[in-house]
Amino acid sequence: MTTEPSRYHRRVAEEKRTAIIEAATGLFLEKGYDGASLARIAESAGVSKATLFKRFPTKAALFDAIVTEYWRPGGGERPEPDPGDLRAGLTGIGNGYADLLTRPGMVSLYRIVIAEAPRFPELGRAQFDLGKMPYFTSVRRYLEAARDTGTARFEDADTAATQFLGMIADYVLWPRMLLVDWSPSPVAVQRAVAEAVATMEARYGVRDAGREDAARR
């Protein structure tokens, strides 16, 4: 007899986890991090307190799970972009970042952190360490690979990654923190990503000298 959980039980467990995370996010936003009890979250999610405490024994553990969930790329892990094609690689990374920032609930997550961080600095640390930093690290790693391949030239990978992600977030995310009706179309978001890529190419891209020589002949 196998001890592995059945597909049905795995699906039920995942549905419960999703319900808990959605309920916690809503209550954190409505009541504040301190004002939303685990018991109330369990009730809102439609699960028993025992089920909730088994999965998330503390509120901090639940918030960590929320951050990790929202920063997980949709559609599973994506293949590493080709460092030999800076435009294509940055476009893929930029569109993936825009997808994350426009994911339902991401703005709510940021609002929770901004509102509660003065009293609960661990929330800001979780958002940074579990969410933004891993994504930032992946972008920096790609830029370093592009530099090693010869398609990019820069002195500081951290600065280059910060500039690229900042150009996208300044259009896609931050206006939504203040303007409830800010909802750029998918075409507008893609255009913002394309402009960020073009700026990075102009600043850090290395032209293919061999191709330029061939074009002159």
Q: Which labels suit this protein?
A:
single chain; 217 residues; mainly alpha; 11 helices; 72% helix; disordered C terminus
Proportion of strand residues: under 5%
Q: SSE order in H/E notation?
A: HHHHHHHHHHH
**Largest sheet composition:** none
Question: What ranges have pLDDT less than 50 throughout 5 or more consecutive residues?
Answer: 209-217
Overall 3D shape:
elongated
Oligomer type = single chain
Rg from alpha-carbon coordinates: 21 Å
Helix content: over 70%
Number of helices: 11
> What is the tally of beta strands?
0
Please, what is the average pLDDT?
88
SSE-based structural type: mainly alpha
Query: What's the N-to-C terminus distance?
Result: 73 Å
Could you walk me through the main structural features you see in this protein, from its secondary elements to its overall organization?
With 217 residues, the chain is mostly helical. The chain is built from eleven helices and no strands. The longest helix has 29 residues. The C terminus is likely disordered.
List the helices and strands and how they pair.
Blueprint: H1 7-31, H2 38-45, H3 49-55, H4 59-70, H5 86-101, H6 106-116, H7 121-149, H8 157-172, H9 174-178, H10 186-204, H11 209-216
